[in-house]
């Protein structure tokens, strides 16, 4: 069992809604305590790396090092605006519903309970992971060395996937980590020897750091005060690792960012690293609608890897009996709703109306302040992060020029962050 589960929040209002969502699920069998922590630098984007450093410093401020020994804490990076899946922007990616009728968070906690926590070093440490990812951990073996500073988890992925992630370059003979590439081109992966004989690459994922290593990390004065630059807990932490790291990225940084990155390099350049490669089809990202829809299909790698996680693509809904295999409906009601292929419906009550939802459509309802609601319809592949000089809604000026639709669905003053679930007691 985790001694504590920590979720990060980007603002105080997001912190409040995460706490409300957590009150709706049972975490007692997974962790002794749960905490939601708001980024400590208001108005400054500190990224997952800045949030990680802040959390570690907070832990050491609250507990003595000797008291941390043997304890295991799970840090779930859950802040952000969910702009690529806007129906989750009101209540957070971690609380998105899957086809097993459970949230991503609940599903992740169950997997970690069964296949991860008991195999981590007994000396204790902090496990760092993302809120919109499910990892298959069943092939993981117990960590060999109790002296491991960092345990990193790798997944066998295609070259295309490798261009969007960190890639571990391994020495063919010794199996040691040579270097870590970040969103490298296929040509760069080939030159650096990242491509395996089977044509796959080893991509990054979650990782575990010992308390001994965390203590060493905090010795740098730069990390003893609030972070003021945007850092990545993958790219900025992992790129210095390996016996021949590629550090040219340091020269392409602003002066202040370069200071942070150099400080991280000094610590991450020589830890005792153990790598656990979880194999193919062991990493599933739910960051876009397309990724989510693909996971629904009967022959999808996700369904194949987690057959027990599929119960129905109609969850917490009434009156809706049949929809295409590539569509998903949650918290909705209706007796005559016809749904096309590749559709997402969330928080919709069609009553007795006959409604046809065209293929490739996302429709969802948000609960506004003053007990009002707004229903939003977009195409599944719309780029809602695209900013426009003038933003109009149904031909009306929204007065939020220079922003995107994603900004609209994420602006706290526009809606009550209680979310739509409370209005569907199903």
UniProtKB/TrEMBL annotation:
Q: Which organism is it from?
A: Caenorhabditis briggsae
Q: Which residues form the GDP-fucose pyrophosphorylase domain?
A: 67-408
Q: Which GO terms describe its biological process?
A: GDP-L-fucose biosynthetic process
Which Pfam family, any one, appears in the UniProt record? Fucose_pyrophosphorylase
Q: Which PANTHER family match?
A: FUCOSE-1-PHOSPHATE GUANYLYLTRANSFERASE
Name of this chain's protein: GDP-fucose pyrophosphorylase domain-containing protein
Q: Name one GO molecular function term.
A: transferase activity, transferring phosphorus-containing groups
Carries keyword Nucleotide-binding?
A: yes
User: Which region is the signal sequence?
Assistant: none
**Keyword Acetylation included in the entry's annotation:** no
Q: Which UniProt keywords apply?
A: Nucleotide-binding, Transferase
């Amino acid at each position: 069992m985790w001694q504590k589960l920590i979720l990060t929040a980007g603002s105080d209002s997001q912190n409040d809604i995460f706490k409300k969502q957590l009150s709706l699920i049972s975490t007692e069998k997974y962790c002794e305590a749960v905490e939601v922590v708001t980024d400590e630098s208001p108005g400054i984007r500190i990224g997952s790396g800045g949030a990680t450093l802040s959390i570690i410093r907070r832990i050491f401020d609250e507990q003595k090092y000797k008291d941390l020994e043997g304890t295991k804490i799970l840090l779930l990076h859950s802040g952000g605006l969910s702009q690529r899946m806007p129906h989750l922007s009101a209540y957070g990616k971690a609380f998105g519903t899957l086809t097993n009728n459970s949230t991503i968070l609940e599903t992740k906690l169950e997997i970690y309970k069964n296949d991860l926590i008991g195999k981590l070093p007994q000396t204790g440490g902090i496990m760092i992971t993302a809120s919109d990812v499910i990892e298959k951990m069943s092939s993981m073996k117990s960590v060999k060395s109790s002296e491991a500073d960092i345990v990193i988890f790798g997944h066998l992925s295609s070259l295309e996937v490798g261009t969007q992630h960190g890639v571990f370059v391994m020495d063919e003979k010794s199996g040691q980590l040579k270097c870590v590439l970040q969103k490298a081109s296929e040509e760069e992966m080939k030159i650096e020897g990242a491509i395996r004989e089977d044509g796959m690459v080893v991509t990054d994922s979650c990782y575990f750091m010992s308390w001994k290593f965390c203590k060493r990390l905090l010795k740098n004065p730069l990390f003893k005060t609030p972070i003021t630059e945007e850092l990545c807990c993958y790219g900025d932490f992992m790129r210095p690792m390996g016996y021949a790291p590629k550090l040219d990225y340091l020269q392409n940084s602003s002066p202040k960012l370069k200071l942070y990155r150099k400080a991280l390099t000094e610590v991450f350049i020589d830890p005792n690293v153990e790598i656990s490669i979880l194999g193919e089809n062991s990493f599933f990202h739910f960051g876009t609608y397309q990724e989510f829809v693909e996971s629904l299909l009967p022959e999808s790698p996700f369904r194949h890897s987690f057959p027990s996680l599929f119960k129905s693509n109609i969850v917490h809904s009434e009156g809706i009996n049949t929809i295409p295999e590539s569509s998903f409906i949650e918290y909705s009601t209706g007796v005559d709703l016809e749904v096309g292929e590749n559709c997402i419906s969330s928080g919709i009550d069609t009553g007795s109306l006959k409604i046809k939802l065209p293929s490739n459509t996302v429709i969802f309802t948000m609960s506004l302040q003053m007990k009002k609601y707004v229903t939003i319809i977009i195409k599944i592949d719309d780029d809602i992060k695209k900013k426009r000089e003038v933003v109009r809604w149904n031909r009306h000026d929204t007065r939020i020029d220079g922003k995107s639709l994603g900004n609209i669905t994420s602006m706290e003053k526009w809606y009550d962050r209680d979310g739509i679930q409370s209005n569907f007691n199903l």
